[in-house]
Amino acid sequence: MKHSPDNEPIQSNQPGQEWQMQRKPQYLREGYKGSGKLEGKVAIITGGDSGIGRAIAVHFALEGADLALAYLNEEKDAVQTRRLVEKEGAKCMLFSGDLGDSQTCRQLVDKVIDEYGCIDVLINNVGEQHPHQDISEIDDQQLEKTFRTNIFSYYRMIRAALPHMQQGATIVNTSSIIGNRGADFLIDYAGTKGAIEALTKSMAQSVADKGIRVNCVAPGPIWTPLIPATFTAEMLEGFGKDTPLGRVGEPWEVATCHLFLACADSAYLPGQTLHPNGGDYMG
Fold first, then answer.
1. Per-residue pLDDT tens for 12-43?
2. CB-based contacts of 55: which residues, under 8 Å, 6+ apart?
3. 3-class SS of residue 67
4. 128 membership: H or E segment, kind and range
């Protein structure tokens, strides 16, 4: 197994395994205490097994929500996240499957309704990325897979969940700094993240009269399993250190943005994007 200059093992499969990481991502700020912001709510978190998804799950549990965590096949990480959630007194259902498939999205929603009876929050957070310096290197199979995972799953999850969401419900989509400024080595990924921004604004207008809010979080360089599963050892060197804050971000620094947009604190914010990126992109 190859290692980065910081001795981080380079992983060969996406979306990556948190348990394999040498330097563990920080999913919770030390001393954080919940205050019931999501008391009695039910939330679905896609990509909920590790990284940003794990951080969202633990914060939501601390705030009183019961959870359904969807993931591809990262069973070991998902089970650990469930332990962390249940430790905070919340219920946690696990669901494994490829959410790029419409039927899988419907199955997830059906299981959540069977288990909990409602959906109050939908966090679309699943994603993958494959660096290439030239568009000619992106074949149809990768192009379609990246779009199926990163944007089609968001449409399909919203379509499946929306009939079960009532006034006051919220949807939060995870985009990326790349969706705003682009990246010459993540061309297909950038296209999906830009699409998420447009989807967010359009859906926010579409469901505003129902009292449902749709918003977005666009992280910058964040230390998650996707990073060592994406980049070479050379690309990992100095990751995040060129931001104005001079460091990589932690998953909890993104999860608190999702929490704000999921709860009543952001009641007058539809169709917006928060940018936890260390000042790397200020728009």
1. 676 767 777 777 889 999 999 999 999 999 99
2. 25, 26, 27, 28, 250, 251, 252, 254, 255
3. strand
4. none
Query: Count of domains in the chain?
Result: 1
Domain assignment of residue 11, yes or no: no
pTM for the predicted model, two decimal places: 0.93
CATH of the domain at 165: 3.40.50.720
Catalytic residues, by residue number, are 189
- Tokens 């499957």, located at residue: 97
Q: Judge whether 128 and 146 are in contact, CB under 8 Å.
A: yes
Domain that holds residue 245: 38-274
Structural domain includes residue 9? no
Chain segment 165-182, per-residue pLDDT in tens: 999 999 999 999 999 999
User: Is residue 16 in some structural domain?
Assistant: no
Cis peptide before 221 (omega within 30 of 0): no
Compute the CA torsion angle 44, 47, 49, 55 (nearest 10 deg): -80
214-231 as b/e, with b when 16 or more CB fall inside 10 Å? bbbbbbbbbbbbbbbbbb
| Residue 112 within any structural domain of the chain | yes
> CA geometry: angle at 172 spanning 278 and 24, to 5°?
50
